[in-house]
Amino acid sequence: METQEFRRHAHELVDWMADYIENVRDLPVVPKTEPGDIRNRLPGSPPEKGEPFDSLVRDFKDLILPGMTHWNHPGWFAYFPANNSPPSILAEMLTATIGAQCMSWQTSPAATELEQVVMEWLRRMLGMPEGFTGVIQDTASTSTLVALLCARERVTEYTFARRGGAAEGADRFTVYASTEAHSSIDKGVKLAGLGLDRLRRIAVDDHYALVPDALEEAIGTDRAAGFRPTCVVGVIGSTSSSALDPIRPIGEICRKHSVWFHVDAAYAGTAAVLPEKRFMMDGIELADSFVFNPHKWMFTNFDCSAYFVRDVDALLHTFSMTPEYLKTARDAEVANFRDWGIQLGRRFRALKLWFVIRSYGVEGIREIVRRHIALAEEFAGWVDAHPGFERMAPVPLGLVCFRYRPRGVDLDDSNLDGLNRALLAAVNDAGRVHLSHTVLGGRYALRMSIGQLYTTRAEVAEAWRLLTEKAKTLGRSDS
Ligand SMILES: *Cc1c(COP(=O)(O)O)cnc(C)c1O
């Protein structure tokens, strides 16, 4: 493609991008697509000769777009958000244009130094104590795996990697997380080679937060049985219900038993920009590592996961690997982020974060997050006030868990599960809003997660209207 042609197409696509942002609310949130629908419409073999760019764009619009789920639709209430924002999109364009590879300082000095600056900004924005140093990882899953690998190193006094990945008693390392903690912890424990049966799932209270006494007891039992407690993962904002594990008592237990304390705040971390939500971080100075995802609630394109550690050397001991061809004259003076995680090659992710923070300002980010939380509180109020609905968990942030429970009809939990499954399908089927579900305390619950950048009260009210309307229809046919 000649530069002139690139310029013309780029301008056209930017116009398309702006139209998309303006009009995404008119598209169905989730496509009505069956497995294979898209693939069957695409040729099985690549073109021998290059095709005109216009036909690529046409096929993107006609074949690909109708098969996309619109996470940046204002009616997006499923899972947790995966936001972007105009400044973030523009930064991604620049990043793609430069095509930088940011594995070490030398390979992209500004990328390394900007990453250091924005991670320090984030540390201050979240009110985290000094002494934490940040690095951008791709996802929270990777960050948690990194934490588990560091924990495994530390429990062997940093000899695990030096011995080529072997340690006395490595089959006896144990990891602890609540029954509500994310599946990425199971995956990390598995990938770190610790063995899934070494992951101890700790009981939660009736707010779905980890019970510290149960943690301490489990660690004690394991110690007595000759296991080596290695890592505890605390969760701020669990995936099912945004439950807040009590960080301080967990941290104190970890200190007492010299266990690595990793805090997973993938979704909720962004809310720590609000002074009134800082309470959930109380005790964070006791953590060894902390992760949250700007790609969830901080309007930064996927992927961008902010990982903080207290002891950078733990990362370096675990991941540093410098063959001759990667050595540079500046290695002693600079941070080489390839030594701070799993991958060698790294994207330039700091740029989009920098664009987002500077465009909105910390106050601007606070306002949006506050608005989301206020909408969730209002929605929770509607649920609480409606005799046919019940709330299933507290609402500390932007997520409301609830279920339909029609009055005057005697339904057991399994009937209610079925009814709510049908309700979710009916509400989502309209294509205007999209919610997801979970299971809390063994019962099916609907999840209304409010955190999409463009969501307004109108979409939240529309979701509630659909829920009550469809519930009435279903409730009647059921009774
Ligand atoms: C979303 C989420 C994750 C996984 O995040 P990825 O960045 O997709 O790996 C982990 N933990 C919690 C609590 C989450 O909400």
Chain-wise SSE layout:
Blueprint: H1 3-23, H2 53-64, E1 76-77, H3 86-98, H4 109-125, E2 133-137, H5 140-155, E3 173-178, H6 183-191, E4 199-202, H7 212-224, E5 228-235, H8 247-256, E6 260-264, E7 289-292, H9 294-297, E8 305-309, H10 312-319, H11 350-385, E9 389-391, E10 399-404, H12 413-429, E11 434-440, E12 443-449, H13 457-478
Helix pairs in contact: 3-11, 4-11, 5-6, 5-10, 12-13
The share of residues in helices is 40-55%
Could you say which overall geometry the principal axes of the C-alpha atoms support? Answer: globular
Instruction: Give the DSSP E fraction (strand runs of 2 or more residues).
Output: 5-15%
Reading off the top of the CATH hierarchy, the class of the largest domain is best stated as Alpha Beta
CATH-derived architecture of the largest domain = 3-Layer(aba) Sandwich
Ligands, deduplicated: pyridoxal-5'-phosphate
Main beta-sheet strand count, sense and barrel state: 7 strands, mixed
What is the average per-residue confidence, as pLDDT, rounded to a whole number? 94
CATH level 3 topology of the largest domain: Aspartate Aminotransferase, domain 2
